[in-house]
Amino acid sequence: MIEAQGLTKRYADKLAVDDLSFTVRPGRVTGFLGPNGAGKSTTMRMILGLDRPTAGSVTVNGKPFAGLFSPMREVGALLDAKAVHGGRSAYRHLLCLAQSNGIPRKRVDEVIGIVGLEDVAGKRSKGFSLGMSQRLGMAAALLGDPDVLMFDEPVNGLDPEGIRWIRLLMRSLAAEGRTVFVSSHLMSEMEHTADHLIVIGRGRLIADCPMAEFIAGAGAEAAMVKTPDAQRLADVVSAAGGTLERDSGGELTVRGLPAERVADLALAHGIALHYLAPARVSLEEAFMELTADSIEYQAKTKG
Amino acid sequence: MTTTTVPADRARTRAVPPAPRRPGLPGALRSELTKIGSVRFTYWTLLALVVASIGWAVLDCAGTVAHGAGPYFNAAQASLAGQVAIGDLIISVLGALVITSEYSTGMIRTSLAVMPRRGVLYAAKAMVFAAVTLTISLITSFTDLFVGQAILASKHLNTTLAQPGVLRAVLLSAAIVTVFGLFAYGTGALIRHTAGAITAMLGVILVLPLLAQTLPTSWYETIQRWLPTLVPWKRSTPGCAVIRG
User: Which strand (E) or helix (H) includes residue A58?
Assistant: First the structure.
C-alpha cells in the first residue's frame, strides 16, 4: 500500500509534482501513466525518499520510507536499471544489497534464477544490454520478497519476449497479494498489464480509476458495422441515442452504443448486418484525449 | 492517520526470513566489504601502493648502500619514505573512488533505496575502507622496514624494531596513509565527483604546504604544524618524530 497526500515537488522555478494524492492498493497492478516529463519518476523518487517533497507526504505501508523497519523486505524498486556499479558482477551487486538488509545469500541465487540471469551472474554488469540490466534491476527489487514493488518504465529496452516476461511477472506478483506500482508512457503496454490506472499530466492527477472505467470514460462505446442499408441503420441508431459515422474509406462506425445493442436494434428492425464488431477505444486514444492539454513538450507542427 | 489495512498477502509463504532487527551497521559493513572487494580499482590501487611503497624502500636503501649514507641519513626513514610520500597519494585515489564511484555510476541511488539511513551507509563505507587500507599499509610498512634494513645490513647501516622510535615510525607510516585516505574519502563524499575530489586532495597535499611558505614566517610556523604534508620528517616540529627512527 502506497499513500500519497498532497504530494508536491518544486524544482527552482518548475513545479514537477503538484498536490498529488492517491492510494496504490495491494493485489493488483496499478499503472502510473503520464507523458514524458509528467512527474512520474519524481513521484517514485519521493516514495523512496530519494527526493524530499516540497509539501505533502507519502507513506509505504503506513510509514515514510526512511522509517521502514527493513526497507528491502517491504519495498522493492527498480527506478533506473543503470543505477549499478558497472565494474561489479551481477552476483556481487545483488549480494551487497542483500547483505545490507541481512537477507541470506541463497536468496541471491533464487532471484538470479527468477530473472534468468544464471549464465551472466559472474560477469561485470558494464557489458549488459539494457534488457539484461532491467532483469538485474528486477532481481534487486525482488531480493527482499517485498509486499510493495515499484517499477519505473520496466519494459524500456526489452525485446517482445522480455516484455511478455515482465508483464507475466508483474501480474503474478499482484496475484500473490502484493502492491505493484508500475510507471510507463507506453499506454499500449499498460492496457495488457494494469488493473488500475493513475494518470498524471504536468504533475497533476488526471485520473485514478479501474482500467475499464478509464477506457469507457474517455470515449463512448462504439461498434464497426457493414450493412447494405446504412440509411435505415443510421435512423434507428440515432433514435436509440447513437450516431452512425462513415469515414473517408467508407467504413461505418456506430458511436455511443455498444455492439450488442446495435445487433438487437438491427434484428428488431429487420436490417441486415454483414459485419458487426465492438470497436474498443484503445487506452492510447483514451489517454491522448485525457492528456491532450497536459502534454508538456508537445511537438509544434507548423501548418 | 489513514486506516492501516492488513495486507492481503499474509498467507503467502515468505521467501526471505523476517529481519531479526532493523538493518544497521553490521549489515552495512558486510555490504561495503563485498562492494570494495568486487571492483577492480580496489586491487589496482592497493597493488600500486604495495609496488610504490616497497619499490621505494628498495631503491632508497640500495642507493644508500651504493653511494654511502649522507649527514642526515636515517635508516628507518630510508625504508618508509616511499610509503608516506607516494602511498598517501595512491590511497587518496582509492579513498575518493570508493564514494565518488557510487555517484558517478548511479549506484548511490540503489544503495540509499536499500539503506535509507545515509549516515550508516557513509560510516560503514569509511570503516571498511579504513580497515582495508590500514591492513594493507601495515603489511607494506613492515615489509618496507624489513626489506630496507636487510639491504642496509650489508653496510651495517641498518636499524631494528627494537631501537627507540622505529616501531612507532612503522606504525605511524601505516596510520598516516590511512588518515590521508579517510581525508580523501571525506572530500569525495562532499564533492561527489572523482576528478574533483582527487584534484582537491592533490591541492591539499602538494600545493597548500608550498603556498603556506609564502605567508609571514610566524604564521607559517603555526600553520605548518596543522598542514597535511609529505615530508613530516624534515621538520623540527612534533610531526618530525613520525618517521625519524
Answer: strand A55-60
